[in-house]
Amino acid sequence: MITVKNIVVSFSKRQVIKKVSFQVKEGAVVGLIGPNGAGKTTIMKTILGLLKFEGAIQINGSAVTVNNHQALTKVGALIERPAIYPFLTGRQNLTLYCKNQQDVLDLVTSLEMTAYVDDKSKQYSLGMKQKLGIAIALLNQPEFVILDEPMNGLDIEATILVRQIIKKYADGGTSFLISSHILSELEKVITDVVLINNGEILVEKPITELIQNEHQQYKLVTNNLAKTVALLDANGIKSENNETYLMIDASRILEIQPIIYAHGIQLLELSPITIDFEEVVVNVLKEREVNPK
Ligand SMILES: Nc1ncnc2c1ncn2[C@@H]1O[C@H](COP(=O)(O)OP(=O)(O)OP(=O)(O)O)[C@@H](O)[C@H]1O
User: Fold this and answer.
1) Nearest atom within ligand 1 for CA of residue 42
2) Which of 19, 102, 123, 225 is deepest in the core (most CB within 10 A)?
3) Quick one: which atom of ligand 1 is closest to the CA of 43?
4) What's the rounded Cα separation, in Å, for the pair 261 and 187?
5) Could you give the ipTM of this predicted complex?
6) Which domains can be identified in the chain, with CATH numbers?
């Protein structure tokens, strides 16, 4: 587990990370999200012992400091640009960092890099470099992987591939801390969300909880909407009629089926009205603008 407790990071006396605390549990894929300049990269660099900080960071109980990187031996990372030697081939770069050659073979295959892995990496496109950087981060069976904008420059196929690999590693117990601005993509892979703004945490939650909170309304479709409205009304259940469906408050949905069945009405659909992850995040940020702490 990575435990970040009350960390404060300052640049020239300006606090950019302000008492941030969160955890990354085993097998969790935590999305670290927030607007530009929120402090995501700074937090990642701090966890990697690259920046001075106040507070405490522990990886499996062992402290990370600027002078002690012992805790980081099982941590793989891709921060900002991949650390690649341009005059070496992709394979030579991977070999340089790996402890077990089999890892290189596996990652080259699973990230579909075979066609160019023996070319000099200075010739690589942005996406090829990015894949190589991700492969380096995943070498040596890491317990934790920190990825800053891993989908940068990746095409759709590579994005799907990277998503599948993250899931495979997470299923095997590897934990991830991933930042990305592509929330629709991040949503497909993360288990938890840490949302930051101006160096402060606004939300730390499982993603299901964050989105579920917004499932306040259900969509109800029956074979007789007008009669359904009247029946619900008679039972004190408010519904909003949108012509093709009714909107019902989540707190009353369990009562609906017995009422309509008793009157011979057929239930065709009863499903939560979801708003997507992107909308939830925008709403949280907007709400904070209106009601600052
Ligand atoms: N080396 C530095 N010196 C001074 N200020 C810095 C330095 N690095 C980052 N900052 C400042 O710290 C704040 C957080 O920056 P950071 O790069 O962590 O944000 P971010 O959330 O990763 O943003 P983005 O989404 O744009 O990558 C910003 O205000 C930035 O200007």
Assistant:
1) 18
2) 225
3) 18
4) 37
5) 0.97
6) 2-211 (3.40.50.300), 215-272 (3.30.70)
Closest C-alpha to 94, from 131, 61, 136 = 136
* Tens-place pLDDT, residues 166-175: 999 999 999 9
For the CA of 45, the closest atom of ligand 1 is 18
Residue with CA at minimum distance from ligand 1 atom 24: 36
Residue nearest to atom 18 of ligand 1 (CA): 39
Of 9, 13, 14, 40, best ligand 1 pocket probe by most atoms within 8 Å of the beta carbon: 40
Please, which pLDDT band fits residue 83 given cuts at 50, 70 and 90? Answer: confident
Closest CA to 208 of 139, 114, 280: 280
Buried b (16+ CB within 10 A) or exposed e, 56-67: ebebeeeebeee
Residues near ligand 1 (Cβ within 6 A):
11, 16, 34, 36-42
Give this prediction's pTM. Answer: 0.83
Structure tokens at 164: 């599948």
Mutational pocket test of ligand 1: of 9, 11, 51, 196, the residue with most ligand atoms within 8 Å of the beta carbon: 11
119-128, pLDDT tens digit by residue?
Answer: 999 999 999 9
